[in-house]
Amino acid sequence: MTTQISFAGFSPVISPSNLVRISVILLLCATPLTAFAQATTTPSSPASAAVPTLAENISATPKFGQTQEQLAADRAECQVWAKGQTGFDPTQYGGGVASSDYNMRRQQYGRAMAACLEGRGYTVHFTAPVTAPPANSPPPPPPPRVVVRNSPPPRPELRYHPFAVHIDGGYTVAAGTTGQYLEDGPNFGVGLTWFPTSWLPVGIRIDGSYSWFRAKDPLLNTGNYTSGHQDFYGGDADLQLNLAHRSSAVQVYLFGGAGRYREQTVLRQVSWVNGLVCGYYYCEPGYVPAVTAERRTTSDWHNAWNAGIGMEIAIADRASFFMEARYLRILPNNNQTKFVPITLGFRF
Q1: How far apart (Å, rounded) are the C-alpha atoms in residues 341 and 348?
Q2: How many alpha carbons lie under 13 Å from residue 272 in its C-beta half-sphere?
Q3: Which residue ranges make up each domain of the chain?
Q4: Under CATH, what is the fold of the domain 163-347?
Q5: Which member of 39, 207, 227, 339 has the greatest number of CB atoms within 10 A?
Q6: What angle is formed at CA 270 by the lines to CA 268 and CA 274, rounded to 5 degrees?
Q7: pLDDT tens digits, 274-332
Q8: Both ends of the chain: CA-CA distance in Å?
């Protein structure tokens, strides 16, 4: 069977197979191009996940006026210390630890940082993180380079102060013939130092001291005494010269001058005498010790001179520790009263 289609007098003969082919071609031409566009469009890829930063969540406020450079140096040193304590490395993505340990290690790292900074004089506020980084996200960019400067904590220095007060104590050696009559004994003292200007290393100091000595046999045998002691007390007005020194924390100085001293002697004779010895429930005759003789003498004020050397070490802004040794001689010369006081003290 054939179908005949007429076009303006032209009547070609179309077979059934050609009719089917022509219908398919017309159908395809009628199909909208948007259908092909929809068929060939690929779905949009999801946006990449955000990468959290590895901030420490720590804020530090200086307690003692540290500079920003000091804060940066302390923070860098504390980062190294906290990394060694916890194994958490904030410069690596994920801290360089397993994802299951991330929260615990990061909190430990933050607490270690906070403890380190607090120990260096900062008020620290630490907020513990609660989330771990995504498992398969690319690592964040490396943190900015931190320049670490080696700045050790400031050490105490000897600074200029016009006035200073000191207290001291130590041991006095009885020298020369004085050592034949007196044993060595303790000493105590106080003083005041005045340096008029900072550019002149010469100052004036006033020292007061007290020394105690136990009497030896040659002194006791002057009156058959069994015990006794001598006290020396007085003061000196000295000049102090600070020697040139390289260290700002330690200095050596010389001093010397004149003073006035007085001595007090107490000698006693203790003997066993008849008396009444009493116990808890009874009393009966017996021998008891008693002071049978005593001599107390106080000399006039005598002139004296002294010279010595000392060393001073700074321990705080206005405090220092010092050691001194001096030669002290109390006049008149025929008395031969000589001492070598060795003292340790603090100056404020």
Answers
A1: 21
A2: 4
A3: 58-126, 163-347
A4: Porin (2.40.160)
A5: 339
A6: 145
A7: 888 887 787 888 888 888 888 999 999 999 999 999 999 999 988 999 999 999 999 88
A8: 131
